[in-house]
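[recover] target loaded
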């Protein structure tokens, strides 16, 4: 007989997609809470390459967004960061993210974590009909955004209440630009990375141009 803690269950992997420009405590709390509630073995943060919804603004170089995600998640043994989206040429589509990750983890059951603001958009994503087979969708609460799953096929998306963090990357970028503090909104080491490379600042041109 096997010891009780050895099971044959499939690995359960959370996937947290985002631009992460920059990663902040709202992302980290959401991932941590879903990891706990759904008994996930791992949560993989996946920074987007080129986001089809954010082509109208200057998104920070993928390498910086990836590095900040690595820095922010380094101390959590259940968190990791994947390069699949930033290494795939062209626009990032979640259907490709999930296909790539299921190829890399053929045994695993995937859970795609997404905030309340994103839920109403999912149906407009590329091959949205295929998404539900690739992963269970988990919508997390987010201050200022009502939960609306009316457009999504019934039973495809689970809703989870997470500790409310009224933090957005947009607000953090604006804060840096006007010299307001971002301490405690993002992990300390991410504050330092933003400073070191002058990201989001007038001098942020350095961070944008350097290859
Ligand atoms: P931006 O303002 O640039 O859009 P953001 O703060 O929304 O940045 P994203 O990288 O766009 O961050 O978000 C990645 C994922 O994390 C999305 O599913 C988003 O809904 C979710 N998310 C972001 N911030 C929070 C938060 N404070 N609470 C819960 N979910 C969040
Ligand atoms: Mg967003």
């Amino acid at each position: 007989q096997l010891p009780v803690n050895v099971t044959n269950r499939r690995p359960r992997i959370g996937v947290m997609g985002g631009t992460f420009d920059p990663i902040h405590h709202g992302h980290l709390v959401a991932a941590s809470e879903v990891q706990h509630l759904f008994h996930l073995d791992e949560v993989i943060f996946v920074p987007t390459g080129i986001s089809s919804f954010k082509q109208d603004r200057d998104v920070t170089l993928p390498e910086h967004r990836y590095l900040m995600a690595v820095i922010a998640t380094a101390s959590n043994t259940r968190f990791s960061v994947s390069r699949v989206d930033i290494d795939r040429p062209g626009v990032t589509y979640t259907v490709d993210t999930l296909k790539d990750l299921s190829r890399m983890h053929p045994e695993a059951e995937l859970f795609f974590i997404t905030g309340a603001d994103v839920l109403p958009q999912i149906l407009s994503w590329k091959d949205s009909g295929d998404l539900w087979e690739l992963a269970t969708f988990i919508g997390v609460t987010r201050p200022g955004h009502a939960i609306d799953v009316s457009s999504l096929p019934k039973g495809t998306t689970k809703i989870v209440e997470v500790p409310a963090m009224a933090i957005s990357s947009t607000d953090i970028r604006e804060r840096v630009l006007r010299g307001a503090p971002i301490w405690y909104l993002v992990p300390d080491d991410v504050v330092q990375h933003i400073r070191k490379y002058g990201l989001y600042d007038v001098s942020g041109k350095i961070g944008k141009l350097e290859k």
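[recover] notes: The first strand starts at residue 12 and ends at 18.
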